[in-house]
Amino acid sequence: MTKNRKAPDASCGLNRRTFLTTSLGAAAVTGLGAQAFLTAGPARASGTTPLRVQFDWLMGNGQIGDIVAREKGYFAEEGLDVEFAPGGPNAQTLPPVLTGQSQMAEFSSTAQFLVAAGAGRPVKLFACGYQFSPYAYISLPKSPIRTPQDLVGKTIAVNPNGRFTLDLIMNLNGIDKDDVRLITQGADMTPLLVGQADAVTGFMTNTSALAALGPDYITMTSEDAGLVGYANAYFSTQEGFEENKDALTRYIAGAARGWGWAFENRTEAVDIMCDAYPNLDRAVEHNTVDIVMSIAFGPDTKTHGWGWFDKSKLERQVEIFNSGNGFIEGVPVVENVVTHEILEATSDVRPKL
């Protein structure tokens, strides 16, 4: 993970309008007139199919399996010439997919995807790299927050966009907003370290920042608090999915192999990732990889394999988000915007770990 990396995640509580702005960005400007460019394109002379993947943020440990797949040649073995397009603080994830510049993309969370779908963008979700969001409320043993009820009477430091998520959690758990004091958090753990707050918000995978707290810090993820969802959501346009289905299927097959290899060979996987992206802190990444694997794999992946998502869980996410008026333009119908088709086609190769 880059030292200053703070992944944008819909579960981290963007307020409704900011959420729509960051999720949808300039897509409305482009319209949907670039359909001619949506296909993955003709095979190159080498016989490979070019495929461009737009990521939501900078390349890091959330993509370790994808990076391993590229570096170890798994995508090439699938007949793909894969290009990774990193995101960043000022990058837009959705417009390159809508215009056909990228054939697929990865949102940091399914909440971002569902907001885009609710706003009428023609998107389709086909796999999820993380089983839950690593966004968490971080506290210390002297004033631990392990459950939502522990928030009562506490001071919580959140960034301005984190208030919406906390409002959802409090509403979901029957907590009066007046019973929780909020202060504004900067980019580090200072409010917790100096006693200004009982908890700060951050990402379980940002172990570089968490190291300042010592080894005994406590995390309550948004998932722990009942705000369910998935992260690292792979998607395309509806039309692009049909036109590029074969290439997208081969991508997930290759990525699944990469994640399986990384799970079994964590030290080597981190080294491969850091060799490919030298800006990453190798020592930090070695300390983080076990956490990453605990998010990418869980009870459902033991049965269904890496990349799995449960449609009923997404329907519950829609219900919760809608209860807080999180959908401004429209409420998505999950069955219309997600598919298990690629997961079913790759069932035999996706690691069940």
Automatic annotation (TrEMBL):
Residues 64-269 form the SsuA/THI5-like domain. Pathway: Cofactor biosynthesis; thiamine diphosphate biosynthesis. InterPro entries: NMT1/THI5, SsuA/THI5, TAT_signal. It holds the Pfam family NMT1. Keywords: Iron, Metal-binding, Pyridoxal phosphate, Thiamine biosynthesis, Transferase. Belongs to the NMT1/THI5 family. Responsible for the formation of the pyrimidine heterocycle in the thiamine biosynthesis pathway. Catalyzes the formation of hydroxymethylpyrimidine phosphate (HMP-P) from histidine and pyridoxal phosphate (PLP). The protein uses PLP and the active site histidine to form HMP-P, generating an inactive enzyme. The enzyme can only undergo a single turnover, which suggests it is a suicide enzyme. PANTHER family: 4-AMINO-5-HYDROXYMETHYL-2-METHYLPYRIMIDINE PHOSPHATE SYNTHASE THI11-RELATED (PTHR31528:SF1). This is Thiamine pyrimidine synthase. It comes from Pseudooceanicola pacificus. The lineage of its organism: Bacteria, Pseudomonadati, Pseudomonadota, Alphaproteobacteria, Rhodobacterales.
